[in-house]
Amino acid sequence: MVDAGLIAIGAGLAVGLTGLASALAEKDIGSAAIGAMTENEKLFGKGLILTVIPETIVIFGLVVAILLWLNM
Amino acid sequence: MLLPEPMSRILVVGTKKRLPDAIDLLYGLENVHVIDFQGGEEGFTLGAPLPEASKASHKLLKLRSAEKELAIDAEAYEGTVAESKIKSELDEGIARMEEEVRLATEIRNAKQVRLSEAEARLAQLEPYRTIPLEVEMYRGYDNLDVLAGHVRADPEPALERGLSGHYELFTAKGGSFVVLFVSSKHADEAQRILSESGFTEVPLPVGSGLPATAAAELDKEIKSAKEELELANKEIAKLNEKYTSMVLASDEYLSIIVEKAELPLRMGASAHTFVLEAWVPTASYDKVTSAFAERFGDSIHVELLENRGREEHHADEEEIKMESGMTSAEAMSLPIEEEPPVKLDHGRNSGRFEFFVKLLSTPRYNEIDPTITVAIFFPMFFGLMVGDVGYAIPFLVLGALGLKRCKSQEWRAISTMLFYGGIWAAFFGLFLYGDMMGIEFTHAEHAKNLVSGWETATWASLLGIDIPHTLFTIPGIDFDVNLGYATKLGSVQILLYGSLWVGLAHLIVGLIIGFYNMIIRHGLKAAIMEKMSWIMVMVGFGCLLPVIIDALVIGNPDALSLSNTLLLVGIGLFAVGMLMAVKGEGGKALIDMPEVVSNVLSYTRLIAIGMSKAGMALAFNYIALGLIAGIGMEGVEPTTDLVMLIVALSIFTAGHLMIFILAILSAGLHGIRLQYVELFKKFYEGGGADFDPLKIKRKHTVEE
């Protein structure tokens, strides 16, 4: 039996750090997208898509956390 | 119905004599999308506006200037005027109004000038107010210089030292303003000393008498000038009231004239004829031709140039491909010949979701209008993420109210999302999760004790009534219809697993639509290489999914053995699909390959968001019901204290209100994101031009 506490910490790190990474990436893209939108409102859709692309990182983190948690 | 309406290109040729009537008819049909004349046809040049355009523009200019002077708000005003009335009163009315407005604004401007002059003089006099010298005494000396200005520090000690008595200094109340009288010989020295105290010079006052008296008089004058200005403004406000309806209606009337008169700028013209190309919906072609024939007989000729199909022709695609050795995918990205405008064609219910598609971009002429997929999947995903009857009911109420009351497009779109999402949320809340406000109706076995020491509340126990878990059994297939099959926090594994399958199905739907788009654009072969390949990859991944779960999560060692048919079929489909994709699209397909996994995993958010909402709801319920009201706590009797019950109720309400608002944001945003990013990328190109027929939009006038 692996130590449950360590697994929980690992799962927390997996979600937390990937969340931070997504946030850092999205912050830059988001502000650029807002900038582009003020020039041309039609870019909303494209801006939204580009902004959410780094979300994949945190989803992978979530999956890793869930795999860890299921093995607890 | 799924594709935009078919379009036909027509050519209208006629004599210039009939041009004004023809323009009236074109606007009246409301079905003609004009193609701008490009030139190039021999003997034809760009047309010139009709003669009435310049006169109308001139009047329009006057009206617009009056509109600005009177500060008329065209958006806010709703009234209408009959067109015949405007026509009869136009010239006289404009002249009269212009005169009145000119007079009123002239008076207003004069008052404004008087006020600002008085204010400027007062500002100049202000610093001298507390110095007891008459204004005349500041000027007219032969051997004396007068320096007046603001200082930062008191210059007196330094002046005393430097000029030894050849000066006289006056300091205003407060000490930051000084006036220095100094003999001309010492003026330079005095300047230097003053500048050390941070001296900034101001002009000397003009006029006569004591500054304080003069300033008091100016104060009086400013007051009266302000009153007069207000009167003048009131006069203008009266004019605004009097003329708003006339000005706006005439503006609209003249704008229509100018718009119609300038239509020839989009046509070709020779000395005696005009020629116009336009798109009309194929379905209304007959109507258009018969309307022209009826009105003009033989003098205007309407010809059908083509009924546009859906296949795509790139400018000299074959030649370029041969010359430069491009792959077909590269050749396809070359500019396309002009596409017909897009008129979407769908029912009222799915039409409400058109806003979400147009937010991204208008579909192209030769692709399936994705509004229908958004209308199906967006509310469904929204409901899956909320999945709670307690939130679904306010969603339904708010959405229905919004659809009834709201007029702006954005609010209508949000109301649409809330209403249809609310329906799905109620459905999933009742039958999938069995949840209301994060509290189950009755206990299914999987979520009894989420918080240790607290018997998780159910509606059955809270209300003290018996709610059956199985509502009824569908006879024949022996299927129990339950109030909830899974709980968001108790059966996470199975829900996550299910969300992957939802994602896979959603993506395959997208690819099938893409396959169809490809067939109508480039034919079956390209469709198979570029889309069928991806469908095979997806299905292959679908076969591998249970194997991966088996091996990684459950830890079954046999899962990866070669005797597992699912594994073999999955790998086979995946590999063949990949090879086809590489052949069809080039090396780019390999880069896209990991996306298969990340796209499918992306759908775990459907459950993750529901889970986070349920977790928050559990926390608030535990605090309100368990800790404060003492319901279901081990070894504690439920409280009967009224104050405690009120506190519990307010925490319960505030907490769920917060979750409710967060649910709109996160479920709405992630629901639409799954459409835009995951689904649309599989088939949607967008970038079409909206069908924009010639049409008169009236707001302030009515035609009889």
Structure description:
The complex is a heterodimer of chains A (72) and B (704). Chain A has three helices and no strands. With 72 residues, chain A is mainly α. In chain A, helix 1 (4-39) packs antiparallel against helix 2 (44-52). By secondary structure, chain B is an alpha+beta fold. Chain B has four domains: 7-50 and 262-308, 2-Layer Sandwich (Alpha-Beta Plaits), CATH 3.30.70.260; 125-217, 2-Layer Sandwich (Alpha-Beta Plaits), CATH 3.30.70.2750; 309-335, no CATH class; 348-682, no CATH class. Chain B is 57% helix and 10% strand. In chain B, strands 1, 2, 3, 9, 10 and 11 form a six-stranded antiparallel sheet that branches. A four-stranded antiparallel sheet of chain B has the order 6-7-5-8, with helices on one face. The A-B interface holds A 42, 44-46, 48-49, 52-53, 55-56, 59-60, 62-63, 66-67, 70 and B 359-361, 492-493, 496, 552-553, 598, 601-602, 604-605, 608, 673, 676-677.
Features:
heterodimer; A: about 70 residues; mainly alpha; F1FO ATP Synthase; about 0% strand; B: alpha+beta; 4 domains; 6-stranded antiparallel β-sheet; 4-stranded antiparallel β-sheet; about 10% strand
